[in-house]
Amino acid sequence: MGIAAQYGAVAALHRAADRLLADATRIGAVLLVALGLEASANGVAAQASRPSPAQATIGLDRAGLAALDRIAFAVDGVESDHGTDPKMWSPDPNGPQGPMQVSAAAAEDAGGGDRFDERQNRALGRAYLALMYRRYGSWPDAVAAYNWGPGNMDSWIGNGRPYDKLPPSVERYGILVLLRSSLAARGLAIDRRHIKRRAPDPHNGGAAVERLYVEIMRTVDLHTR
Length: 225
Prior knowledge:
Helices cover 64% and strands 0% of the residues. The chain starts with a helix and ends with a helix. The longest helix is centred in the N-terminal third of the chain and has 47 residues, at 3-49. By secondary structure, the protein is mostly helical.
């Protein structure tokens, strides 16, 4: 093969390689557009399937909505003293914020909104409480999950609800919210003094608190069903 023929063959190979590269580039561009459209569609679908704060209360009857209002008001008081605690605004933008200490994840689960607006913060907190109630079917469990997180709550329930594995802070939070909501106060001769200290008997103190906690949980369920 002469030199001219060799050059011609090499040139032909280069042209073929250029065509393949161009075709691959076009195919890649098409794939990127398709994947982008699919991701966008999935994002829109996910946004559409996410409940709004108003939709989170769907399924609650009048008694359930009344209980939700009392629980949400109590949580507002426990978390921020009804918006008067300056520490309710965290320097961490992803941390709990506002009068109901709504996290970024909780706000997203509840339908999204401005956690830094007090009105929307309360709406998101109320909606998240409703979601927790719909998830667990119990206000005591819903309140505990609001404070502890549903992942921890699911694990605790899955392990048989071991009382010694329930963090004391979550226990105190739940009792305080339920007492302030007045749901547990009816029918029980107890007040806040009962949850500030344990029974004086060191051998029976834990059992006494456990009995009180169980009784509160039982009474709340009776008054909200």
